[in-house]
Amino acid sequence: MSVSTLILLSYLLLAIFAFFFVLKSVKMARMPVHLRWELSPVPHEKGKGHYGGSYLETAEWWTKPREKDHVAEGLYMFKEILFLKALFEHKRSLWWFSFPFHFGMYLLIGAAALLALGGIGTVTGFVTPDLWLLSRGLPLLAGAGYALGILGAVGLFFTRLLEKGMANSTTNATYFNVLLLGTLFGTGLWAVFSVPDFTGQVLGFVGALFTADLSIQLAGILKAHFLLSFIFLAYLPFTQMMHFVAKYFTYHEVRWDDNPLEPGGKMEKELIELLGQSPTWSGPHVRADGKKTWVDIATDTGKQEAEK
Amino acid sequence: MSEKVRVKDIGREDLPMLSEVRPEELIPLPPPYDKLEDLPGFKQVSDEKKERVVCNLDGVIAAAMPHPESPEEEQKYVEMFVEGLKKLLSKENNWTFLQPLTLSLEYCIGCQTCADACHVFEATGGKEIYRPTYRSEVWRRLVNKYVKPGGKLLAPLKGADIDLNWTTITRLYELTYRCNLCRRCAQVCPVGVDNGLIAHELRKLFSQELGWAPTELHEKGTVLQLDVGSSTGMNSVVVKDNIEFIDEDITDETGIETVTPFDKEDADVLLIHNAGEMLAWPENPGAFAIILNAAGIDWTLSSEEVGYDGVNYGLFYDDVQLARVAVKHSQTAQKLNAKRIVMGECGHQHKALVTIADRVLVGDLAVRRESFLPLLEEIVFSGKIEFDPSKNDFPVTLHDPCNIVRNLGIVEPQRRILRYLCPQFREMTPHGVDNYCCGGGSGFAIMSGNNYEDWRNNVSGRVKFKQIIQAFQDQPGPEVKKYLCAPCSNCKGTIRDMLKYYGALERSGITYGGLVELIVNAMVDVKEPFIKWEMY
After folding, report:
1. What is the DSSP-derived secondary structure letter of residue B318?
2. What one-character-per-residue DSSP string does A252-307 give?
3. Is A275 exposed, middle or buried (0-12, 13-18, 19+ CB in 10 A)?
4. Cβ-nearest to A91 among B7, B113, B126
5. Do strands B425-426 and B299-300 pair parallel, antiparallel, or not at all (unpaired)?
6. Residue contact A91–B433, C-beta within 8 A
């Protein structure tokens, strides 16, 4: 594949990624407010979060000011995101592979950020590829990320295959995802070790993405690696691997959403709108006719026995 | 019989059962309950019964679905099921849980962390069909195949190799009643996926679309409550009579003149009991009356239909019924102009009315609501009542009702009371928000037809029973009387059945009761012991 084809394909794949990533994320964020479904522990409960307590432990809680501990919540998220705390505590056997898998990706995200900055820097002339952070730091960071990723991917693949419970709920698509990522990490590590001017070539490619310079040189393995990376990104929004975005909502908008209804507030307005919709459930006791709203149905005090 | 059960096996019509519960495969209990031959056994469903109702999952019947009369009827329900799947994922029909449900549908990574946290899965030594993700994965694959665009085309890739037929939907229906909805699994999920919610939503689908729900929850539960006033069948006249009898008994027993106020307007507290307490554990509403009167609380009960029964089984299976009951509770408080509703010792009542209904009771219906526990804590430590903790000098442990503790985060008030009033209080392991369900959560406590009660005592309640025995392992014999404090009606019902089933009073000296009974037992003004060492 020529560099020009690769660059054009990269634009296309990145555009697909950006569009669908934003679309999916916005879709998650824009779901209607739901009934309260919080689950202890809620770490922002000041002075109580550590044992799972909530403001509901206080008599006439509505007469007291609510205090939220955002530091405790942030710390909880930090440990969860960076170290996969829940998995460490509740499923250690999987953590040994899942942690390097995810931490490897974090290192690669760091390497990608460095690469993007370096690419812009070299194009604009602010830095040169022989800057230590780029010439040595980049291969080190990326190499460590790829190595950890491979370890994780191999471990996760075989754990899923061999552990009875996991095998039953693992679909072909999930095996494919792990293999895809494993291959991506593998090509990356191969490139780090086999391409003498690794930093120069990858910086050149990133620079070319910004300048649309089609004349750059790129080793075959790097072409394969970049192509695979962008294919992965374009594919990502359509998979369960978007769980890293979903996790924000499952934690902040479900588990930890213990906001009480404030009369006259924004949430109440939204709820009144939702309660004005007309459900179409067919169960005889629901007595929905496509016109009655949730309010009509919830306040329908007609004798139920007669409806059976 | 298939022991290596795959997700797609749920639709296999050639298997009479998908799996089977065998007592010898369950995790062992501590002595003296470790010998299978000494235990009451596990009733089998008769062939005659199987001919009348569907029994195709695990040899246990919760729902007692009659067989369809014709293939056309089967097909009708299968089509309704698909419609229900779509409605579960639509805003107008299921805005109530759309966001958490969609997130749980799309982003489970199948790590199985949930399985290790599930007491039902653990009790059976890891039976595949009780794995929290088994049910969820069936649903997920059905949605992928029958609801999503191009689902049938992408089925091989997404594992949606699952047949949808009468067998699938009836097995799935039964399977939704093998989860206590305790949400211990959701608590440990690294992604925040909630398999308990999925079971809950599937129950809703069956009820709200197909009209299927266990009789105990629907006809004898919410329907009876909305029609007569209480799922116990008591109308307001009977309730007032019963409370009057309870007051008289309590007065005779304690020497304290006990009067329960009814329908007092402008009261500070409208107390709503689970009406089952009045019939099964009358000492509980009696103890509440003693405490609230002694503390000088301005309180009342209501004789308004539904307003005297805090039960809301809609929480377990049907949003519509949940909302109707919650609205009635709120209207009761409005009518009396009560300042606040205080929940009695009933866990699911707490969850239904304090949090879930918070986003249903808008506008004028938004009456203030809270648990009895902070109020009791205030009273106990207020100095208004004199206590003698030595009257409670026997081993006491605490069961944490999931709906009060894990779901509402009310953890410490009850512990502060017990640490103060019960010198020999000890915790179970684990406890607090990490507790195990009693095994009766989500309606199982009141479901006992066929061999379901045996399943509850042997399977869903097994880990809790083990915990109870272990909490008292320093004094295991029956000569030392022990008290299991379970401040929740449904938990008490389950624990009563479980202790009776295993003969725990006779063999280990364990009885059970609520929190208010312990408080009254420690009151200096109550001369005779309030706690009776018997199985209630």
Report:
1. -
2. IIIIT--PPP-TTSHHHHHHHHHHTS------TTT---SSS-HHHHHT--S-SGGG
3. buried
4. B113
5. unpaired
6. no
Comparing CB atoms, the residue among B156, B191, B368 nearest residue A172 is B156
For tokens 């985060």, the residue is B409
Contacts of B408 in chain A (CB under 8 A): 40, 54, 56
Q: So what's the pLDDT on residue B171?
A: 97
Using 50, 70 and 90 to split pLDDT, how confident is the model at A170?
A: confident
Q: Which of B110, B133, B355 sits opposite A38 (nearest CB)?
A: B355
For testing the chain A interface, which of B7, B111, B335 should be mutated: the one with the most A CBs within 10 Å?
Answer: B111
Other Cβ atoms within 10 Å of A212 Cβ, number: 10
The chain B residue lying nearest A36, using CA atoms, is B356
Q: Which residues of chain B have pLDDT under 70?
A: 1-3, 157-160, 535-536
pLDDT of residue A308: 45
Cβ pairs bridging A and B (under 8 Å): 297
pLDDT digits (tens, 9 = 90+) for B70-120: 999 999 999 999 999 999 999 999 999 999 999 999 999 999 999 999 999
Sort out which chain B residues have CB atoms less than 8 A from A300's CB and list them.
Answer: 324
How far is the alpha carbon of B255 from chain A, nearest alpha carbon, in Å?
Answer: 30
Whether residue A300 contacts residue A287, with contact meaning beta carbons closer than 8 Å, is answered with yes
Are B420 and B380 in contact by the 8 Å Cβ rule? The answer is: yes
Decide: helix, strand or coil at residue B208. helix
**Per-residue confidence band for A305, with pLDDT thresholds at 50, 70 and 90:** low
Nearest by CB to residue B320, choosing from A90, A250, A286, is A286
Whether residues B362 and A298 touch (CB distance < 8 A) is answered with no
Residues of A in contact with B435 (CB under 8 A): none
Provide φ and ψ at A19, rounded to 5°. -65, -50
Model pTM score: 0.95
> Residue B219 has what DSSP assignment?
I
Residue-wise pLDDT for A197-220, tens only, equals 899 899 889 888 888 887 888 999
Lowest model confidence (mean pLDDT) among A10-24, A48-62, A87-101, B152-166 = B152-166
CA B134 to chain CA mean position, Å: 21
At which residue do the structure tokens 């067989």 appear? B67
Contact between residue B489 and residue B346 where contact means Cβ atoms under 8 Å apart: yes
